[in-house]
Amino acid sequence: MRAKVAYVRCYESVFLYFLAMQNNAEHQINLKVLRQSIDKGEQRIRQIDKAIEELFEDNICGKITDERFIKMTTSYEEEQKNLTASVENWKLELENAQQQEVNGRNRVKVDIYFTAVGIVNIPTETEIKAAMEKIQRSRKQAITT
User: Fold this and answer.
1) How many whole angstroms from its chain centre is CA 110?
2) Domain range for residue 78?
3) Sign of the CA dihedral 114, 119, 122, 126?
4) Which of 13, 34, 112, 129 is spaced 20 to 30 Å from 51 by Cα?
């Protein structure tokens, strides 16, 4: 355990890099699974539409009874309704996931209790730029006064 702690202390930036890469890989896998779920859901919705259309034609031709038509279409419509809601939720999840920084800089929070730091919040690029601009403004004000 001490060897691991010493490694992280000495090579903290490398450790954070590897952690970010691992999180990025997991993030990419999650995005892929969401895309596949959306594709399969949309494909099934199209299949249900086609099946309902065929049932309607079979009902008109007299191949199936009205009761059977109603029972089957009700089942298909319920499945389609649930599937449509699921696909919409998956699309929202995908959109939110894609908006996150993929490089892991603002997604990685590391507990470093062994260095007595506590939880380290890694700033985003915009937070770093804002801090740099603030420092530069304060330096310019100090020089002019």
Assistant:
1) 20
2) 2-144
3) negative
4) 34
